[in-house]
Fold each of these.
Amino acid sequence: MKYVYKLVICLFVVAGLLSCTQSEVGEYGYLTVGVADEVSGDVQVKSGSDVFRVQVVDSDGNIDADIADHTTITQEKPIALLMGRYTVTASNGDPTTGFNLPYWSGENSVRIWAERDASVDIVTKMSKVIFSVSFPTDEKFQESFPEYSLTVTSGEGEAKETLVFSNSPKEGEGSFSDVAYFVVPQNKTIAYTLKMKNKDGAQYSSTNKIENVAAAEHYHFEFKLGDREEIDGALVLNISLDGEYKETIVHNLNLNFDKTYMPSYGHNEAFNPDEKGIVYPLGNDITKMLTFSAPRGIKSLIVSHMDYNLMLEGLPQVTDFVGISDEESNKMVELGIIGTIAEGGLSAEIDITEFVKNLSISPENTSYKMAFTVIDTYDRYARCDFEFTIVSDIQAETGSVFYWSSFAIFKGKYFSKTPPAGMTFQYKKLSDENWLEIDPSLINIDEKTMSYSYLLNGLDMGTRYTFRSTSDKDKAEQKVADTLIFTTYASESQVYNTSFDEWCTSDGAPYPNKDLSVQYVWDSANKAASGMGTTPTTQETSKVIKGSAVRMESCSVMGVLAAGNVYTGQFGSINGIGATLNWGLPFTSRPLALRGWYRYEPKPIDIFADTHKNLEGKTDFCQIQIFLTNWTKQFEINTTTGKFVDMSDDNEEIIAYGAIMSDINTTQLEGNTNGYIKFTIPLEYRNLNQPTYIVISGAASRYGDYFTGGLGSTLYLDELELVYDPTELTDEEFEAVFGRIR
């Protein structure tokens, strides 16, 4: 089976299509990509997809184009490139080591000339070393050997990567139906270890190496049992390259399961690695010594693991103290693991006292897992699997803090089976001397995660605070948890005239502002509509909650819908049948919600654009929305060209967003106040960027921007305010605000 694909890259070149001079940027060409199935022999399926990622790199190493799907590059949609020489690469699959992760890649260079077509062929090849394994599936073999595995390790030192095939795979291991794909190691050497346990419990292990491995080589291991059943066997290694047979290597095995003089391990009295649920406090220094015996002689003494957290601590995945290099030995000593093999090679010790003492607290809900294996000269072995957890040496440990302008949420952890007595938090301003303590009865405890929390409200804005965890026992023993420092956000501003009590008039059009100079915060479409005898947005003094309200009615202007609206920003100019609007008010605070009152009387949609004809006759919708952005200036909306703010998650300029859309006539609802109902719009935060602008807007017709709505639909807004106090929100509203960023 050939692991080769051929891509045909065609270049269609056109000069001078962009308005730049040649002396500035040169002449342009256009690149398209096509894939041709010009492959001899069978083709292996590439993760179920024939889609290639294509990158175009210039002579300076800059990536001029990065296309995830080569099929999107066509003559109609080419890549614009300057004249010059480029390297074009193509790849498919996952470039990392793992099970069932094939990866094809290839590259070629091409020169772009003006007014001349060009093409380049890219042959993509399997770029990894491939391993697969098969064992007998007959009932007799399965009964004789309840446990067997093959461990494959590539590279050396910190670059080691290990994958395990097993008849009973654990998490992260593969079964014998899986295929392992290794990145070609720098030393081009891969080791493999066969481990077997027979039905009597005797264990066997054998290790060999393959040198000078190369990409696209496929090593298939097939275990065969010899004529004397449990005594002889062989690993038959069939090697192919690009799907073509290369050679067969047979490793004959003496499966010596003689139970006499078996290797074994032990430990000092104060340390029992075989116990379940071992827990050590941080910095525990009790001696932890493993002893090993191999009357037939020690062939290997191995420390191994497949623990991600131990990798973060710097522990190599596999270290053999037999034949260990000075570099590897020094590395293990630095980590606190000291291995000693006695003269004569019949016994050994591994001391891990300092290693365990220096380990970090175990990540939440996890434990450390490692193994110690002694293999004798008969390839029999004894293995100790050691699983343990490191916890804090104090009862209540400081966790994390989530803070805002006037409140913070403290989090902590505990490590005992039941919550410690008096578990709570202490806090103070960083400049203060005395600590304040929260009443332990107010603490929220989650026994499933062994954590606890408290929301502290009423903090000063723009102030540095510190906090820590504690408990009755920690205080009695004068143990102090770590402290965390945070600074609350600096402001809690309100937007001017959200009560809509102040109004002025300019050129016959009303505005919800005291004036249009210093206090020019709110605007509407009145400037465009009033010149044609219509005023969609007006001051309301009768149907109000208090003082005045803003009334927005959807009207017809020369047969085109003009939706009554209001927004923070300024009207721009009339543009065709629509207008430009400058949205946004400079603003740097972080409110939690917008609260207020609205009254809505919708009508059936009877004026519409062709694009929204499907809405004809349906009840109109109002919209109230609020969002924070990090714009550098106001955003110009153009209703004629359809230029609006992108509210999708892809727009990273949107920091927080919330909205209400409704077709309900609030005057018909039970419990309304003068036709109004109270509302709260949680601001759903997407990130913690610094806000620079706020937009608050209301519209009597949701689709007014598209000249679609119900003639006479009317929305009233009154007594709006920004909410900063978290206790004024329901649990659901609070979760909506912070659910994505906590």
Note: The helical segments are 22-25, 139-144, 308-312, 326-335, 353-358, 472-476, 526-529, 731-738.
Amino acid sequence: MTRKDHTGGEATRSGGRRRPRRVAWLASTALLALSFAGLVSAAPRAGASNARAVRPAPITPSDLSLTTPTGGRHGFRHGAVPRIESRRGPLRRFVSPRSATPSGISKELTYGGGLTADGLVGAGVTTGPPRVYLVFVGSQWGAEGTNGAGLVTFTGDRDGEAVALQTLYGGLGTDGELWSGTATQYCDGVAVGATSCSSGAESVPYPTGDALAGVWYDNSATATALTGSGATGHQLALEAEAAATHFGNPGQAANRDAQYVLASPTGTNPDGWSDPITGYCAYHDDTHDPAIDGGGPAAGPVLAFTNLPYVPDAGAACGAGSVNNPGVLDGATEAASHEYAETLTDQFPESSRPGGWSDAAGQEIGDLCAFISAPAPGAAYDLVLASGTVAVQGLWSNQANGGAGGCVQTAPVDHFIPTITSIFPVTAAVGQGVTIAGTNLSGVIHVAFHGVAAGVSSDGPFAVVASVPPGASNGSVTVTTPSGTATSAQAFTVAAPTITKFTAGAVGQGVVITGTNLSGATGVAFSGVPALVFADSISSVVAIVPAGTSPGPITVQTPGGTAASAKSFAPVPVVTSITPASGGVGALVTVSGSGLAGARKVLINGRKAAMVSDSPSAVVVTVPKRGTSGPVTVVTPGGRASGPVAFVVT
């Protein structure tokens, strides 16, 4: 794809240490005062075992705090969902907090220029069909099975998180859901600092119901060991690289629009997620982030990955019960939706200021809207998909509230409909490249020439290069992207073939037919007799001379029409037998073989014999007067041939 190259200091990777980006995300005391109320502690009042039970005082906002996931040199935890903590003990239930954006503070997301490094150019968002690879890490998940819906299950999955995650990722883009619409307003290819996208930019596409590209249970000894010991950021990056290898995604191009979700089993502590100060519910990063702890970046292509602990273990601290009752999986799918959306809109977030879309404090599309509950705008809710129903969180929309921005549950798909303005060349042969120019053409899914699918060699916002497919015919060209289908106003014409020359050959031999626009040949005939096409290219066709060929033109049929040779082709004659082998003057002699039609003369030991009849496979002559014993020779427009034995004149 063609992308604008943003190489400013904020958009490119740096080899030096980067200042950790603090995720401010509802973390201030003032915002907490606006956001939380009524979380209840179950601790009983001390003493008075014989006294009437006293209802504990409700937890107030001053009792609450959010962890700081990026603290302590953990700046690589991008878009981390913090835990809700209470100084009065573990949270027993989630009480609908109301989050709001403080008045007078702009929270608009702006574009950071994308990442230009390691083969990526200006890569800030996912621009092709989203592909999620779900990895269950470590044998602690237990025995693998399959449920009635064909989803992977595990005996060690206490709360059924595996099925919930597959339901979420496998159903996005189905049943007309518009939760996915919010992310489509963000793009690559605009100026750094932009707050909106325009026609020609490469926008995040709406998923087409197949976002879940693969599921892998990595129960290897290595994965089990790192899960059991508490994987570091570096080890998680290595696991993502291993997953790319497992799924057959080598190289950067295969991973441009992929994200790897690393799900850890219950009872484990990946990258210190349960820490009361710097703990979290999930985060996303890329494998080349220089800030990754425990060993630094991982070798291999730059991969987007999510670290997803077993979120139900955290209970209400990570959102359990925020939508449903008891809602043990609410927090898990909300955290997964949070990181999925943030990967779409900030896919490779390793730069000190994210290269995708974030606000001035580095907060992303999900950070600004976590832990919001009804009836507040953008509250977490149950999203109905063809695969099932799961809880998701709201997302930040720059377009909400008349452009002032806000958290929303859904948004219209921000379609940048593709258009075709020209085709060049407008006439071409099968196999030739055609440049289709227009707007909003990146992320192409399908190109067709008059309904026949074509191979695509490159695409970008303003042009697609496709090859004229075999079987194409004259008509319009269509380009389909995730946002729609464009049809050319110009009619494309398959170039007509021509024949300029051909080589000689006998029946059963290959003949090279040279000309123009011969690729995609659908038929070759010698004097009307169909021939087997052995190979074809733009300038030549190789066909086998068929039995029964007589002198006449060669024709080649392609999607562009039929070409006939100006000169006649006559096969090289071959004599295989003479019957009888001897005879007197005037006796009939049959000369058999191939390519004998149109014989000009037959000689018996140099003396011309009178011809009675001829066909492609035989010539009948009479033994001439004063004929003598010797070879029998047949002369045709294709050459001359002699029999295998001499004829004896008696």
Note: Residues 29-408 form one domain.
Amino acid sequence: MMKNISYKIRLTLACVLLSATSVQLIAQTNNDILKQADRHYQYANYARAVQLYEQVVAQTKLLVTQEATPEQTEKLQQEKIDLFTKIADSYWQMRQYNKAKVALDEIKNISLVKLSNKEKNRLAQLYALTGDYKKAADIYDQIPGAKNKAELYRQDDFFGKLKADSADWTIQLLNINSAYNDFSPVIVHQNILFSSNKPQGKEKRAFGWDGNDYTSLWLFPIKDLKNIQEKPTQKNDKKTTTLQTKKIAGIYTPGDVRPMEQRSSLKNEMPLLPTTQSGKGVRVSGTEKFQFNIATASVDSLGNIFLSVNNQKVKNTQTSSISIMQGSWANQAISQVKALPLDGFFATMHPTVNKQSTLLIFTAKIAESDSYDLYMSKRNDPNQAWSVPVKLAENINSTGNEVFPYIAPDGYLYFSSDGHPGLGGLDLFKIDLQQAINKTGTIESLGYPVNSAADDFGWAQDTTKRAGFFSSNRYANADNIFSYAYLPIPKSMFVSGLVKEKKSLDLLPGATVFLVDKEKQIVYVDKADKDGRFTFEIKNHGEFTLKGLEENYFEDCIDINVPAPAYKQNQYAAKDILLELQVPKKWVLENLLYDLDKWNIRKDAQAPLDSVVAIMKKYPIFVELGSHTDSRGSDTYNERLSQRRAQSAVDYIVSKGISRSRITAKGYGETQPTNECKNGVNCSEEQHQANRRTEIKVTHNPEPAHTLDPNKFKKGDILKTSDFPEGFFGKCRE
């Protein structure tokens, strides 16, 4: 995490009431220093340039008096913007991001619109780097083509999804790292081939970009790699044997994947770089022949090595160009190196080649662009020339930078991007290689903890396809190489919903629910709980069927498509299962009244009995009509009265065309009260009324609504679709 630091002297545009009568402009008071700084900046000697620019900041007094004209004020603002733009860019190129942010904030404080889109993008990245994604989103709103990134940064579950697989990864720092920048590991046989700007010799001259050594290739046996627990510590003693504050590398670290990356300083080299703790590994033989930077290699199975080289002067300049070269790789040495004829680019770098040496994907920048994109070139035979490079599609290349591609053994193309939404800086993404070639598919973030708020890049994968190495500057803005192991813990999807009666929407506790995995033809069984809820835990996704089953209910089923789980535990809310009641097992006939001490059917009592007739004509059920009295009167009297009333009701129903064999009369008297109102108990009229009732009870249903007996199934049963009647899970709603 970057520390917030401030310049000792901040320039201000506030009006100061002094006796001065004019405005002191930067160019007037620091002309010689500015010329020197601009010259160093032009030649990408950022370390020296920013020292001089800071000197200008410290020595210049920008005073605006009351007499200053609007033109003078505007000119002063513009000079301040120009100065801090160069300061910010210098610190950015050297990857001193905290200082770059302070300089960009100086410009933002004048006016956000004064920042170019490139500078806005940098400032947004710096906010993301410190974890302030809201401010990053606010700035991305101001950048054309970055609205989607801003919207994703504001989504509540966006970062939860990126961290969903964190338990699947084991990330560890390696003992290979030095006090300098170590990055872009490549697995070559039993060794790790990596890039580093650690000292190459006592007399080696430093790289004027940031005052450190040139980048080269180093080799170390994988068997000697060890994981270490502590993070790099910041120490002033360069001779300490522990990991130290890193020395910034040159042109190949991700912080330098910006405009001007194609330059390295030739004129402004610095003599003597102190030899400090140099980490592990030996420098690859053959790299000493290169005058400047060499890094990010890829090796095919035919003994060819492809690498990024910063080795040739650009005509009429004091800078050198970056290009991809091909050489021979044998006996852990590089030879016969020659440039690949990749024309039409301002810079090419970061090659990755498949093992057959028929597909090349690389990073490139055209002259008129401010960002880097991924390109590919093909050939049918390793002896043929490479085809004209083709830019990968917009599903991969964004408005930002796409860099450090890697063709992996698992069939995916891995790359880093600061243009696609992520945790900040360069994040690692992957896409199916064939889809990338065909310009289809969707990229996928590797998520946390592989990705961090810093720069994460340089993916390498071993033959198990679940382990390997990558590089990141998550510690003190310094590149280190990490090992990773991926052991995915199965994700769970909890499919849940309610079972209700279709018309009343009453919950149906105890109902049987089936979940059918259509692909595997497996059936899972659950019973609705006391709240009518069912829940299934599944480990896969795809097409499923839910079906509810209960006695005397018409069944209901729903086809669902369960998405791939994003987290370790996910919820899928299914639609309610609606079971329509065919006929209740028992119900009370409301408003069936009798005159006192009478049993004949009154005219107003015919309606409830007619409803029974309608049901019995619709369904071939057999029922008992039971009549109940309250406890007032003798037991014998109440029993006789209830039997007579039940018989009268049955006779009425039979008179309406219902067979007498299907309905019986039963007088219960006062033997089955619905409350405590028995003999000798004082009760209210309402309590007595509750006991005076006529009930219909289904005794037999030869054609029940349910097609299977739900009592045959238990919660937790796992069955096959072949265990059910053909078509049982068909014709479902969506």
Note: The longest helix spans residues 70-93.
